[in-house]
Model the fold of this input.
Amino acid sequence: MGIRMRCETWDVRRARAVVLIAAAAGLLTRMLIAANMPGPADVRIFQGFADAIVRYGPIRIYEQPLPGLPVYNHPPLAGWMLLGLHELSGLGIPFGTLIRSPASIADFFCALLVFEIVRRRSSAGTAVACGVGVAVSPVLIATSGYHGNTDAVAITFALAAAHLLADRKSPLAAGVCAALSISVKFVPVVVIPALFVVALRSGRPALIRFTAGFTALVALVWGPVLVTVPQSLKENVLEYAGGSYRLWGLVRFADGLGLPQSFITFIQGEGHFLFVLVCVAAGVWLAWLRPAQLPGVVAVTMGLLLLLSTASALQYLTWAAAGLFVIGFWEGTAYSCLLGLTAVLGYQGRSAVRWSETVLHLGEAGWFVLAACLVSAVRKILAAQSAAPPQSPAERTSVPAPCTPRPTGSSVN
Done:
């Protein structure tokens, strides 16, 4: 038994090392892009936001008119991040490089995180493939290294919360990560109810700890803004519906089918909350049925949000990229390759919000690929055993197992 345990431990260490090397190479690639390419308009917009935050502060920024800039729609933690990056730029580091660092670093940790999630549910080989897939994902390289918004950071925290809660049995840390995810970018709010459902199903102590971690961080980060400028925060962040571009998904198809303008206006306005509720309901349902598959549930919920999104932006493609590798290698690869090509060609155009006909058609095909991946994901989650995976590698090796490689399977089984 001791020999087998050492062999299993060596296999895990070697697999983790492979993913670590790939993640480091991916980070280097992203940072080289960030240091040598100007990026889209968002890079300059974020610099404008940072300058305004230095002038008004990360709390009062929400109530200030910002001539020449779009609405400041980022949660409170993003403001403190921009303030810190502005200070670092005073050391001579270009702000354009700095603004793309958080997302690039998040992808590094996300690759390791996906490996840890998948290895508890599938073979070591599949886990390595999925972790490496995140590291070299064309979607994530384009959106993190070139674009540099905060989407990748928020997704990494959301997946970390699911992993800590379902796999590591650390509800307090999970609650903190859940709060961090919506404090960087608000879109992961759709997964918060599913996290609470799993905390509830884990027992009263777990629910109390998860709630304590979540509430404490929310109070710390959101509290000062909610007390000082509640209405501005509500209008700019909580009610933000995205841009009005017709480049992706339901709005794109509605426009192509010649549906009435009133319908398009409705789904882009108040109607988009209905789609948000559908995503929340799907996540809660899956979390209740299969709490042990919470990382996959988070992946499905964020992917469904992208599928039903009535807003269009290339960086939104990040929402599903890492999560689909949690579901399976082929789902993640299919999405990353097709939507990665979409992102790369989209960024090569005149503007990231003006897509060529080729990019529009690739986006349409990518939407159907995403839909198929989500169907596969739901089937895998429902087919999975309801028992929780082991908490630690030691628990996995407590029963003798041969050192021969296990058959490669899906990430959720």
In short: The two ends are 27 Å apart (CA to CA).
